[in-house]
Amino acid sequence: xxxxxxxxxxxxxxxxxxxxxxxxxxxxxxxxxxxxxxxxxxxxxxxxxxxxxxxxxxxxxxxxxxxxxxxxxxxxxxxxxxxxxxxxxxxxxxxxxxxxxxxxxxxxxxxxxxxxxxxxxxxxxxxxxxxxxxxxxxxxxxxxxxxxxxxxxxxxxxxxxxxxxxxxxxxxxxxxxxxxxxxxxxxxxxxxxxxxxxxxxxxxxxxxxxxxxxxxxxxxxxxxxxxxxxxxxxxxxxxxxxxxxxxxxxxxxxxxxxxxxxxxxxxxxxxxxxxxxxxxxxxxxxxxxxxxxxxxxxxxxxxxxxxxxxxxxxxxxxxxxxxxxxxxxxxxxxxxxxxxxxxxxxxxxxxxxxxxxxxxxxxxxxxxxxxxxxxxxxxxxxxxxxxxxxxxxxxxxxxxxxxxxxxxxxxxxxxxxxxxxxxxxxxxxxxxxxxxxxxxxxxxxxxxxxxxxxxxxxxxxxxxxxxxxxxxxxxxxx
Length: 478
Fold this sequence. Notes:
This protein is α/β, with parallel strands linked by helices. It contains 18 helices and six strands. The chain has a six-stranded parallel sheet with strand order 3-2-1-4-5-6.
């Protein structure tokens, strides 16, 4: 490193770290999320410039070629990805982050220890902390990559979203973890033969990839929001470990921020589902349903109606709450919801949106979806805020949500979702549930809300149903 540039590098890294913190702060609120994302992107750009200054000399073809290819691929994916596929994209991005960390750490080991061709322990060349973090970066980064690919497969439908519960899976995962740590420690601190070190690192990578698959394959689709948050944390921890390997303060800070925020979000998701992290990771939720059959045969009398009946309820009421779920994303109906909401507000109705923390397939999925339709931020109310108001709400329109509005979570102690905080829409005067059928949600259980006397089922595609409701409401109001 050019010593004369050292103060400049420190300033750039400090500025980058501060902007990362402000960017993360901005992401905590829907209103400031876009600005926070831009600030974080600027922080990353400054960190990259600081790294270039610290390197002094480098091959621009490799650097800028990588930036160009990565930028084009990222831009293409961002433009083409549908909102329904956003969780899958986030899962893949987590995986790519983990893979990058593992590859950088392994490459550093190759460059400094193996390539010179002099038999020596990695510990003697890298030092104790760098040797240890190299192993951790490779292990965590590789398992993050493979685990994220499995999560992507479950979310996209390429793999079964039900948990695959292999016999002795916990013991097998523990043995793979112990093996990766043990062999990694041997490669970093004991082995001096360069061929042995290289083979050990390859085995550690293979074991870590297998461990990532083993950890996620036994988790069901209902728990994917938690898994995505946890894998995001893993990718940050892997990046921080790589920062220690490279002695790069900006990478350490940014990785630590991602790791910590991912763990916090994971905790929030677990609380929102009344589940412990251990139960999510090892419980196999969704493999066997204790709540009995969940198809149409499981229901007693269910009141159904059409768009005209729903429009009449809206005309008679003064307050309306929309509860979005994954079905809204599948139907791409967010703009139609906004159109209906604007129409209701035009006639003096109070309109708000009830947002459950785990609605959709990733944290914040519904917030992003509705923001795309320019729904006012102040109308998006979190569960704790909207629940007290539901008892005085005239009409609730549930669009594609299922488990997050199931009263069984409050009333049936034998239910798999017992104790999970829900949006208490059953307290409203009238509830309209827009759904294609009586099929169960991710939890695979019957939704008692569908049988409530104040509930009307509207069986249709969400977008088509909402469009018909707009048309019928206009006719009623003249």
